[in-house]
Structure to design on (748 residues):
């Protein structure tokens, strides 16, 4: 295969579930899947020195087009050699399209057929995103994988609203595809995003239309926006089989360790979420024996490691008592060491899941989960 | 020599100045001098992962008794095995006595012969420090080097006030020495602190009195408290020769790279200051070609390293443009990478100064300085 292009290979399929284990080849290295992508909003995974991220063998991170467009600006990043060079990140990079961020700040936006006018959450200045401009911005950033610009349907949405929003997303998807074709440099892949809220026939129409546009991968968008958990699982369950089997399937903005396991069983290959990094900074730590809220008094003199089953530097070196102290004194180092641990937890879990799919015992993960836990 | 005790050896003396190059043997390793001690206020050098600090070959750090007394409490640290274990720091540790912090928050303090009552800057709760309690607190922390509890005379102070304050410090020094003798475990060294404001005869009386108490090292306190720079140099110049020649001489809370060079020429061996770490976080970076205020627009598209002559990870990996971006977006990583650089600058400078004293060309540093610079 062409080392300069993104392609996908499925190496193992689970016999009891729809889980797959594969590898995403990118111009910046191979990414074994299923994969969790740490979120590097502003071109840096918050509080994670790149040395730590590399030691963790993170192969791909996600950066936010919306944030980089505002600061320092995509044109500046392009002049500085692209996001890989600017951030000194040699692994793979996926950029989202900003659709979700514009959706999050909806009181600041004004949507039309042409695109979305929105106000910066930083200084209130106005900008206008169109499918074409968002493709151009991501091209300037130079990510390995770009996402189409979509209208992220809020929850709850009535059927008619969800349908109109989904159809707008499809028209934008076509414009993104055309713009991408015009600018195609052979190195950047483009993924489609299925919308349709919680309506199965809308998800189906979206998936079928996007399938014909032949993207390099397909994502499920518009979830984790406030809908009940079971409804989210239901949508993933009926949407995943509608996605091309031989291309990477990406569930955007999800989620908890349990979400990941369940979605992998449904055939999802890629994930991103701020949960491990944001929770870390807020004192919520994932461990093999359940969550630890590090601010709690019970850890004040706890000499044990955060997670006795974790091999990260935080767990090898520091006690819960010391981490709690760093949290309470507001040290930057608290953010560093807590993020390192939570990301290790996520990435180690994904590594083990990949192994289990390859070895044919992925079902154990579902069993483990049913026995309860956090 | 006894590896469990702190001792000092002078290896080289400069022929043209009073500079000395030596080694401070401590129960937690050897510390080549002159040495700059990074400040680890709360038992952690702010924003510096211990791995980075170790890679920098930092051999000794300073921790603040006042801050650790308040959070998490010295008794807690003692129960957790002492500060070395709590903070997972295997190098040498020096604790100050809290005198300076109590002085800094003077509107919150009430001083008497017995000691100082003060209010916590965190929650306003009252505490009472005495020479005896401060020795006990540092013993609980388990630092390699403890400092006596002194009254840090403010600047400006009239002669009578400075004399009364200095004499109170001497009475407290005696009480500290006696308490230390009672608690002596053979592992922790105690340093005296010379006061006397800007009056040479007061400094002389203080130095002579403390000299008879036979501390393991001697410090100059009460400087860098608002006096003009030249006056500070003058005090160091006439005080240093009054300090025991064969024991380490420590200038507390000083200073800029220029301050360090000038004080080393006067015979000082040890320094601590928040300048490199605090300045880093505020965007003030030390480089071989002068200071860099990283927030400035001139660096927005500067692809060069922060300091082309620096080998730290920050300079090897990132551009000024990226560091400026991290600063402006308020990323924790900005604090990490800027602190790493500024401490590298300080520690590399001290390493080169030690080499130059050993090689007999320390005078070049003074020459360099006179040619100007930052």
């Amino acid at each position: 295969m062409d080392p300069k292009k993104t392609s996908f290979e499925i190496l193992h399929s689970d016999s009891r579930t729809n889980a797959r284990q594969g590898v995403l080849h990118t111009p910046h290295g191979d990414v074994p899947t299923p994969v969790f992508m740490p979120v590097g909003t502003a071109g840096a995974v918050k509080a994670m020195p790149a040395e730590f991220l590399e030691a963790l063998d993170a192969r791909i991170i996600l950066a936010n087009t919306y944030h980089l467009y505002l600061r320092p600006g995509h044109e500046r990043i392009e002049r500085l050699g692209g996001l890989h060079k600017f951030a000194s990140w040699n692994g793979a990079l996926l950029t989202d399209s900003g659709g979700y961020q514009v959706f999050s700040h909806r009181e600041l936006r004004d949507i039309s057929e042409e695109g979305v006018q929105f106000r910066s959450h930083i200084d209130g200045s106005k900008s206008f995103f169109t499918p074409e401009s968002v493709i151009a911005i991501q091209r300037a950033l130079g990510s390995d994988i770009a996402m189409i610009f979509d209208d992220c349907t809020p929850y709850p949405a009535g059927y008619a609203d969800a349908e109109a929003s989904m159809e707008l997303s499809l028209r934008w998807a076509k414009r993104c595809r055309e713009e991408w074709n015009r600018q195609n440099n052979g190195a950047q892949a483009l993924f489609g995003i299925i919308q349709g809220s919680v309506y199965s026939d809308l998800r189906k129409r979206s998936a079928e239309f996007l399938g014909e546009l032949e993207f390099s991968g397909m994502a499920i968008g518009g979830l984790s926006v406030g809908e009940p958990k079971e409804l989210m699982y239901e949508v993933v369950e009926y949407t995943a089989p509608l996605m091309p089997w031989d291309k990477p399937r990406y569930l955007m903005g999800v989620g908890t360790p349990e979400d990941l396991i369940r979605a992998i069983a449904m055939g999802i290959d890629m994930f991103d979420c701020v949960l491990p990094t944001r929770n870390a900074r807020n004192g919520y730590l994932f461990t093999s024996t359940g969550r630890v809220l590090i601010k709690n008094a019970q850890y004040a003199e706890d000499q044990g490691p955060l997670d006795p089953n974790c091999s990260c530097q935080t767990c090898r070196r520091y006690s819960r008592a010391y981490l709690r102290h760093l949290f309470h004194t507001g040290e930057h180092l608290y953010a560093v060491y807590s993020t390192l641990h939570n990301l290790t937890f996520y990435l180690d879990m994904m590594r083990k899941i990949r192994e289990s799919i390859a070895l044919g015992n992925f079902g154990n993960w579902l069993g483990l989960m049913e026995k309860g836990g956090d």
About this structure: The two ends of chain A are 42 Å apart (CA to CA). The first strand of chain A starts at residue 7 and ends at 13. Chain A has a mean pLDDT of 95.
